[in-house]
């Protein structure tokens, strides 16, 4: 990481991230190593250090000759991102990290430590092109897709810090990953899918995390949802619905003008059937906008008797927004109405709100 005041190279806009081990499948790693004049088995050794031991210190790779380490590190483990700053809250149990990528692009991730688990919320794009008006990330617009390795490295860095005890609370293991940071994951489909493989393939091919601990969010890109259902994964799919009627959802989630509520829900039920996982319906409660009791009843009628859970999110404030969270009494009534329809419902813990690290707040301000 560069020292304060040190000049750093910033790639021109539009340049591709350098190739990284995490971009490559196991077979591609062997080919890449062979191209460097090294024996193919070095690919497995290198993968074991990065994925299995979570080590990014070549000096500790004593099973690889020093000259080979230098060559492999330079070609397959380039620095993709550097920490601009960490900001913590909740007695240091929640930590937001602002990253600077190789081309100067900024993205954010959030690590949340709970008594029984550790979750990381990661970004799949710099910015977001979905333009949802109540979301700071959406209002910033889309800068670019992240590479597979840029997605994976957010997790790798968090796992290394947890292993070393650098995160408050001592050594721990990551248990859950949510693709709910900056970006629409299914709009960066191939790289997100590849990153899921890297996160869940057993070591040394990947980190060996459980697919059931991975959650992928979407605003409802229907063709990509059907494609995702055919991948044979057991990840959780979270649908950011935010309104049960097309008139309002057209305003809150502009992609709804292309794929309507009924079509989006059908795609969600298809994923639930093929994956065996229940769908998480994400619903940001916005005062006097989408929190009426009749909308709770409409939502309940649409989704009851399906494999589903509703995650209500009190709207997190963003600078300049005209909208705010629902009144407590309206939130309670919304919950009561959904539960009356037999729909499992919870209200999300707004972790990280005071550091702009909660849902909808990530804007990567430098």
UniProtKB/TrEMBL annotation:
Organism: Kitasatospora paracochleata
Designated name of the protein: Probable dual-specificity RNA methyltransferase RlmN
Database matches in SMART domains: Elp3
Ribosomal protein found in the keyword field: no
InterPro entries in the record: Aldolase_TIM, Elp3/MiaA/NifB-like_rSAM, Methyltransferase_A, RNA_MTrfase_RlmN, rRNA_lsu_MTrfase_RlmN/Cfr, rSAM, rSAM_sf
Domain Radical SAM core: 114-354
Family indicated by similarity: Belongs to the radical SAM superfamily. RlmN family.
Record key words, sorted: 4Fe-4S, Cytoplasm, Disulfide bond, Iron, Iron-sulfur, Metal-binding, Methyltransferase, rRNA processing, S-adenosyl-L-methionine, Transferase, tRNA processing
